[in-house]
Write a structure and sequence with these properties.
Two copies of one chain form a homodimer.
Chain A: H1 3-19, H2 23-39, H3 41-58, H4 62-68, H5 72-87, E1 95-100, E2 106-113, E3 116-120, H6 126-137, E4 141-145, H7 151-167, E5 175-177, H8 183-190, E6 198-201, H9 205-214, E7 227-231, H10 237-249, E8 258-264, H11 265-281, E9 285-288, H12 290-295, E10 300-301, E11 315-321, H13 324-334, E12 339-343, H14 347-356, E13 361-366, H15 373-376, E14 383-385, E15 393-395, E16 401-412
Helix pairs in contact in A: 2-5, 2-7, 3-7, 5-6, 10-11
Chain lengths: 415, 415
Amino acid sequence: MNEVQLIGKRADSASRRLAVLPTAVKNAALELMASSLEENRDGIMEANLRDIKAAEKKGVSLAFIDRLTLTPSRFQDMVDSVLQIARLADPVGEVIRAWRRPNGLEISKVRVPLGVIGIIYEARPNVSVDAGCLCLKSGNCVILRGGADAINSNLAIVDALGKAAVRAGIPRGSIQMLKDTSHAAVKALLRLDRYVDLIIPRGGEGLIRTVVENSTIPVIKHYKGICHVYVDGEADLKIARRICFNAKVQRPGVCNAMETMLVQRKAAKRFLKPMLRMFMKAGVELRGCPEVRKIVPGVKKAVEKDWSAEYLDLILSVKVVSGIEEAIEHINTYGSGHSDAIVTSDYDNARKFSREVDSAAVFVNASTRFTDGGEFGFGAEIGISTDKLHARGPMALEELTTYKYVVCGDGQIRQ
Amino acid sequence: MNEVQLIGKRADSASRRLAVLPTAVKNAALELMASSLEENRDGIMEANLRDIKAAEKKGVSLAFIDRLTLTPSRFQDMVDSVLQIARLADPVGEVIRAWRRPNGLEISKVRVPLGVIGIIYEARPNVSVDAGCLCLKSGNCVILRGGADAINSNLAIVDALGKAAVRAGIPRGSIQMLKDTSHAAVKALLRLDRYVDLIIPRGGEGLIRTVVENSTIPVIKHYKGICHVYVDGEADLKIARRICFNAKVQRPGVCNAMETMLVQRKAAKRFLKPMLRMFMKAGVELRGCPEVRKIVPGVKKAVEKDWSAEYLDLILSVKVVSGIEEAIEHINTYGSGHSDAIVTSDYDNARKFSREVDSAAVFVNASTRFTDGGEFGFGAEIGISTDKLHARGPMALEELTTYKYVVCGDGQIRQ
């Protein structure tokens, strides 16, 4: 048996005991894990420094080094997030629904952990902490597979977490890290459907495609966030400007930032001139349809592939549309089913947009930037799904669970 | 573009309109579809006769011919099931949860259709009706792919259903049948992830494995039902006998029938003698562990592979265990996560069993035969899932849906 199989088997066997641990034991473990991170701060920071030096030697980008680096404040954020997870409600054991059948059978639909979850991610070491602790809180064993460049940081973190967990009574094997960072090892993990119930990949589109293509285990993911804001003819243009500016500029590198702005023809002239000036001032590169370019000269020409581009940058495509029908059609054709917004004062259009746009999150008069576990009030986030099966939109503790039916009777048999 | 791609594209485009149709339109369509089946009874029965004759020529088994055959009473059952589905509650539009955030955003989690569902099945023509109508009621387009041997029956049925649906205002392309019954066409369907959201295979283990191995679309399935009844030391043995007999004998060929009976050592002597005599009288072949064979001579020897066998027949493996721990361990090791029961009068053991057995349905003092959409009160069933993602246990209308978040604000932006 190789490393990957051993890890899988160990997780599977631990998962049965972890699944039924009382909330108090899991919470006490999380508190001990937070202290353990603090006690091992020096060792973790030193391991992180080794990763950074090795990455610099390889000549990676500054952005990559930034994602890899644990600053003192990021370290504190990691510790705080563990304590925060300890304070969240335990999803396990919730009775989702219960009813009695005419024959007297009492049926309960009860929330239970999934079992074993594999998390595949890239350079950020804080994912080891967040993902590891969210899985533990929801009663799942986790197999972490971080990027090769963060291996020393990750090993030091998982060592600190794992030892504390075991001291607190969590079954050994509940939090494990794949030490072998080869592609072969990832592929072996992705075929461990006998032991692993779910794979969550976090990272760029390339990583996610590789995972989906190689996995025999169910995968929940999102490829892209091509988010739209549609400014309706009946919009309050002051609100529209505020929302569009926020959706594009506040943090352009994330999946819930706006990539395409659609404007109803009636509002185009009045709205676009001041709006696009604001964007230009903020350094946003604009790519427009012919009508946009007629209204605001100096805007670059948008080509077909701009409508399906996830820029993740200060770039925006802009299009004038005839009305809500064309806006919805455009979004359902070019969008990625992530987050899309309408700005309108018209009741019927608000309802129509929220019903007919086929996305995980649909906003009326609010910024697309709110698609986030924390902003939704889930207290945490392990990822965002643009899939439709099992989980859609921000995923937190509840999305890491499944259910079982418990049926109680007094001797019922089927006729 | 070949037939499969055309069908996929047509379904995808119809799905947007079908998803937002009012319940009344869908129900009126279902009623018209039931009438249309009746009006086309002669043509459908004639097509079925052609299928039967062709199958007989090929020399298939009598059981196969039986599954293929539409008797007058089975035809009536099909019509009734359409009317029954019309009367079920529409799952679409249910607000699963709604809350207000401190910043005033109002978030609703709303139930919506999945989109396009592919159903792959074997000889039974009634699946075309059940699956087609359940998908329609839940707002999903359906692509049906029945077995080659039932092609004439299926085409006649789907023609009758589809024309009536369109007459009632359902978008063309909502119910389609794959006419090409080649393996290549199925494989092409399984890779249509651009248009199809979910595949549900219904049939034997071989069919299901082929589907899982070739699909790039999420699949919900169950491979096997290796169901257990554990008779605890503290059981009411009269109830235990009734439940075990029902679970094995009432309908041995289905997935929720008992395949292995576990008996606690303390109860073994008193329980096994009369119980196994009852089974023998009913023609059940028994395969036991050494202890069972000591208590009741004449029982065949169970070998290792008996513990993971799905007999689907009047055969039962029987094992004496030391207690609830061993019973749970046996079930979690050899079972298929489908349906497992305990018979006990002990409160703690009832709780322990229902928490620690990792199956879709866990029964206390009731027969495993109750795992069924109808028996659970769902009014219908499109299949049973032993998967943990999205749906577990009996699947009906709700399990054919997903959700979206609708977020309403008055200009909120993210800080």
